[in-house]
Amino acid sequence: MPGDGHEGNVAIQEWGTSAVEDTERGREELLDYLADRSGCAYLSDLRLPSVADRLGQVLRGAPRGVWAPEAWQEAASYITGEGSGAGEAEARDILLAWCRDCGSRYGKH
Predict the structure, then answer these.
(1) What pLDDT is stored for residue 80 in this prediction?
(2) Hey, is 77 helix, strand or coil?
(3) Rounded distance, CA 92 to CA 28, Å?
(4) Is 101 helix (H, G, I), strand (E, B) or coil?
(5) Whose CA is closest to 68, among 80, 52, 81, 86?
(6) Residues of 73-88 as b/e, b for ≥16 C-beta within 10 angstroms?
(7) Under a CB-based contact definition with an 8 Å cutoff, are residues 84 and 94 in contact?
(8) What is the CA radius of gyration of the chain?
(9) pLDDT tens readout for residues 73-108
């Protein structure tokens, strides 16, 4: 609005930003990040054995120290169905083990 002190301030949506940039701006939660980069249309798709290999790749490439330990605990609990009081490193290990187990079982069927 003219005269409100915001002349020329235009919000621009940037596409292709990094996970660090997205998180710093509050745009992307960990589960959303994992689902998006694993090609999942829904968060619940992260639990599918057919997604385990892609999810494992995403987890291995996810930047460290971006999300709070609680976000990693939530992701591990949501995806594996088991509670986790672990920090980031432990939650990553739990998720990667789940991906290996699910991926190997899925590949054998």
Answers:
(1) 93
(2) helix
(3) 18
(4) helix
(5) 86
(6) bbbbbbbbeeebebeb
(7) yes
(8) 17
(9) 999 999 999 876 779 999 999 999 999 998 777 654
CA distance 80 to 8: 47
Q: Which residues contact 76 (CB under 8 A, 6 or more apart)?
A: 82, 84, 86, 91, 94, 95, 98
pLDDT tens digits for 15-74? Answer: 344 555 554 544 489 999 999 999 999 999 999 999 999 999 999 999 999 999 999 999
Where exactly are the structural domains of the chain?
Answer: 19-106
User: In sequence order, what are the residues at sequence separation of 6 or more whose Cβ sits closer than 8 angstroms to the Cβ of residue 103?
Assistant: 49, 52, 53, 56
Contacts of range 92-97, beta carbons closer than 8 Å, 24 or more positions apart: 92/59, 92/62, 95/55, 95/59, 96/56, 96/59, 96/60
